[in-house]
Amino acid sequence: METWIFLSQIFQIFIAFCLFTTLYGKGNPLRSFAEYSYLAAGTAMSVMWAWNYIRDHAIIGLQAGEWIWIPAIILGLMMWFRIHPKYSYISRMPIAFTIGIGMGWTIRTNIFTQFITQISATIVPLFDQGAMWLFERTVIAVGIITMMSFFIYTTEIKGPHLWSATFGEYFMYLAFGAVFAGTFMGRLGLFVGHMQSYMFPVWKQPYTLGIAILVFVVMLWLDRSGLGEKLSA
Amino acid sequence: MGKEDFNLLKWMATYDKRWTYLLLFILVLLPMIYPIGMPISVSELTKEYYEQLETLEEGDIVLDSWSTEYSGYMELKPGMISSHKYFIKNGIKLFICLGHPEGLALVQALLDEELKSYMEKYDYTYGEDYIILGTALPNQAATLAMATDFQGSVKVDWKGDSIQGTFLDRIETGADIDMISDYTTGAGNPGLINHIVLTFGTPMIQNQIGVSLPGSLANKDAGLITGLLASTRGGSELELLVNEPGPGLIAMDAFTLGHYLLIIFIVIGNIGYFGWAKRVSEERERTTIR
Amino acid sequence: MSWFFKSKQVNLAILVASFMMGFVPYFLEVPQVYGFANTLTMVSAVVGQFAIVIAIYSQYRRSLRFISERRKGWVYNIYLLVLMSVMILMGFLVGEHHASYMWLVNSIVAPCSSVVYGILAFYMFSAGARAFRARSLKAALLIIAGITVLLYQAPLTGAYFPGISPYAVFLTEKVGMSLNRMFSIAIITGAIMLNVRMLTGRELAFMGFVGEEGS
């Protein structure tokens, strides 16, 4: 295997376990090194992402004679005045333009997907497909309405509204339990998948275990000697 | 004064949580070194996803949207690998759109490492069978532009080479896309649903992480998504259905142990609470009132 | 000339006009208008990408301040600036598909990104183990639902005790989904209200008009 690829694999394992030392609960230089590396590299990647987007559309478009990109670039440069203490008001126009366009097509699409479609999917014929369908759709409809009634704060909650809000609150707790379990499954799956990438192929296993033990021992030593907090960021 | 005797109930209420971190680490790593091979069942959700895959025919064009960062890939990997193996085996054409800057790392991880030999086996080649458009769908605006005027908004692939003369010449608008295959860690790219699914009725399947599953379930219930694969578990079930065992099935041992460990510690915590912590707190209140 | 850029009315007019250009064409079905609206959406996407420079400037400024004031961890800020500058230069000079750039991306961004989210598994584990106490009926419902779905999600349970599936699937696909649907409807309602306030000039803080609501 190429040396650089091998070194990359080893460095990946090392920096991952450095970041895992966050779980110890105390600062240490290994964790700080990993954090700042990630911040630097991630920011640089975002810069290249933005530049590629501008190049692929505005620059190439201009070269093809599409003059609409000239005001685009001017507006983009005006956005930079946001950081100027005296002329920051120049950035208001590109912000207004960008947010206005974004609001326009977000609202006209999300009204359908997040609002109308969701409501119409809730209010469906109940008696079409048997007892189980009736039960499930009733639970969904009643659950959504009662949970929403729990969040109405503009009137005093009493009488039927109180019953509805109370039922909605209990329904929500049931739902949160299920959602928590789903969330834990997701995160555990992510962690397991991550560890798999360091344990397979099998040749990686001794390196992973060795680096894990090494980082753990160094972290403990740094903590016991008092250097951990001193040398961290 | 003598050393306090060990109180099991007190320990159950007050143990140092870092020991549970270490235990979880060990229980995840151990089955990878010594696999147990626990059986798994296949859920209805995964079966429906697989049925959607089976509706595709050879030569159909699929918009392959990777709206996930590298961390999400770790969770979606089994589903992504088995879905793409299905596409490759059945000659489905793909155009891959990256929705996140970390997508570059994904291309190498999935295509150059995991699927390379599989693609060679089925003679699945770049330009003929799949094209990577790069960051073509970073936001809704770009998705809208692609959906309404594909040829006008997309001219080059991720390396700047022209896409003219490829299978993408067949696409004018979103109506010409046979299916959307979305791998996402959040709301994904809402533009896919807003501007392609709703406008052209294009079927969409989604591989979603556990955190965002309830939102995608709502979309599936509303008919916006036709197939949904749930996290690593769904991916491992799909590996069974497409008959391509992979990282998902290997992960299920650790998956099972991790879940059981959490349940055990929830029970331990409640025993400690009712057996010690609640009693101590009530005694403290009584003492304060006096 | 500065009055033109500072004017609340001018900026509000731009906001409303661009909103209309994004909103109205969807309902008109006139190809030329629709095409122009699409072009404007691409323009706005390009304009938005320029904002990354502000982020970079802020990061440089913050780090240089830390370094000059010798605050705790100032050495790490030097490292950050050097690494960030090197990677940006590499991206421009050799391109992001070059082996050296990809080496840094694969070696740093990929593993750290995975850890940042993977570490949440431990925090969720700790939160669940320490906070799930059946102190009341509501808390007990939370725990029962959580344990039922956790048991189902463990693949072994589904294989040997399939009887748990209907209950867990009901909790996830009906009850949990209802919660999310409720939040979707509520959030989009709030978003529409906020957008109306922005378009009517009552909420312009995002443009820098602080303390001028309604005036």
What does the model show?
- The complex is a heterotrimer of chains A (233), B (290) and C (215).
- Chain A is mainly α.
- Chain A is 79% helix and 0% strand.
- The longest helix of chain A is centred in the C-terminal third of the chain and has 40 residues.
- In chain B, strand 4, helix 9 and strand 5 form a beta-alpha-beta unit.
- The mean pLDDT of chain B is 89.
- Helices cover 55% and strands 11% of the residues of chain B.
- Chain C is built from ten helices and no strands.
- Classes of the chains: A mainly alpha (233), B alpha/beta (290), C mainly alpha (215).
- At the A-C interface, helix 1, helix 2, helix 3, helix 4 and helix 5 of A face helix 1, helix 2, helix 4, helix 5 and helix 6 of C.
Offer a few descriptive terms.
heterotrimer, B: Rossmann fold, six-stranded parallel sheet, 6 strands, 11% strand, elongated, C: 215 residues, mainly alpha, 10 helices, 80% helix, 0% strand
Question: Helices, strands, pairings?
Answer:
The complex is a heterotrimer of chains A (233), B (290) and C (215).
Chain A lengths: L2 H18 L8 H35 L5 H11 L12 H31 L7 H21 L9 H40 L4 H22 L1 H5 L2
Chain B lengths: L7 H7 L2 H17 L10 H11 L6 E7 L2 H20 L3 E6 L4 H12 L1 H6 L8 E5 L5 H9 L1 H4 L25 E6 L5 H11 L3 E5 L4 H9 L5 E4 H11 L5 H43 L1
Parallel strand pairs in B: 1-2, 1-4, 2-3, 4-5, 5-6
Helix pairs in contact in B: 1-12, 2-12, 3-11, 4-5, 4-11, 7-9, 11-12
Chain C lengths: L1 H5 L1 H16 L1 H4 L2 H19 L2 H17 L5 H20 L5 H33 L5 H17 L1 H6 L4 H35 L16
Helix pairs in contact in C: 5-6, 8-10
